[in-house]
Amino acid sequence: MTALENLVQNLARLPGIGPKSASRLAYHLIKTDSAYNKQLGLNIATIQEQVFPCSICGSFTEVDPCPICDDPSRDKTQLCIVEQPQDVITLQSSGAFDGLYHVLGGAISPLDGIGPENLSFSKMLKRIAEGHFKEIIIATNPTEEGDTTALYIRHLLKDKKELSITRLASGLPIGGDLEYADRITLARSLKGRILF
Ligand code: ZN
């Protein structure tokens, strides 16, 4: 295999990059400034040493524990359970949550061979047993896998009567018209309706 074929093949393994995009990127890299290529190569080669999962919550961090787990001003009575480290960034950017997070590392998906044993449920249970949580907020995705995972969490916590277990409401997009909402979003919004 030539150096170019090798590069194309490796680029094509990135999510969202097909063989066509991979070859376009490879030709771009050949023509581009070599200092940029070296910097990009170094960034890729060292990213896993510099950014890694927090030993407490599992979100990506450059220091352990992460700044969220380490922040004494955060509300230690609320634990928000998410699928992926990126979800922590998304929820944080909403500015609407001040508690702690727990990253599962995915969702239960038997078709993809992901069972409960592949996700960090035992770590989650240990944190809940040792912590001072009053509310567990399930923030898994509004997908079939996310729903299955949410039900599984509720099942795991069924004996913890002292905890209130909530799930993110699946709302309608702000500024959107009901007529443009898709049926599933609308059905969920109806089911998750709140007292007004
Ligand atoms: Zn953390």
How would you characterize this protein structure?
Helices cover 41% and strands 11% of the residues. By secondary structure, it is α/β, with parallel strands linked by helices. The chain has 2 domains: 3-50, Helicase, Ruva Protein, domain 3, CATH 1.10.8; 76-167, Dna Topoisomerase Vi A Subunit, Chain: A, domain 2, CATH 3.40.1360.10. A hairpin with a 6-residue loop joins strand 1 (52-53) and strand 2. Helix 1 (3-11) crosses helix 2. Bound molecules: zinc ion. Zinc ion is lined by residues 54, 56-57, 59, 65-66, 68-69.
CA radius of gyration:
21 Å
Shape, principal axes of CA atoms: globular
Which spans have pLDDT < 50 for at least 5 consecutive residues?
none
CATH topology of the largest domain: Dna Topoisomerase Vi A Subunit, Chain: A, domain 2
* Largest pleated sheet: 4 strands, parallel
The CATH first-level class of the largest domain comes to Alpha Beta
Order of helices and strands: HHHEEEHEHEHEH
Report the sheet-strand fraction.
5-15%
Q: If classified by CATH, what would the architecture of the largest domain be?
A: 3-Layer(aba) Sandwich
End-to-end separation in angstroms reads 65 Å
- If helices are DSSP runs of H or I spanning 4 or more residues, what is the number of helices? 7
Count of distinct strands: 6
Task: Write a compact overview of the structure shown.
The chain has seven helices and six strands, in the order H-H-H-E-E-E-H-E-H-E-H-E-H.
Question: What are its keywords?
Answer:
196 residues, alpha/beta, Helicase, Ruva Protein, domain 3, Dna Topoisomerase Vi A Subunit, Chain: A, domain 2, 2 domains, 4-stranded parallel beta sheet, two-stranded antiparallel ribbon, 7 helices, 11% strand, globular, binds zinc ion
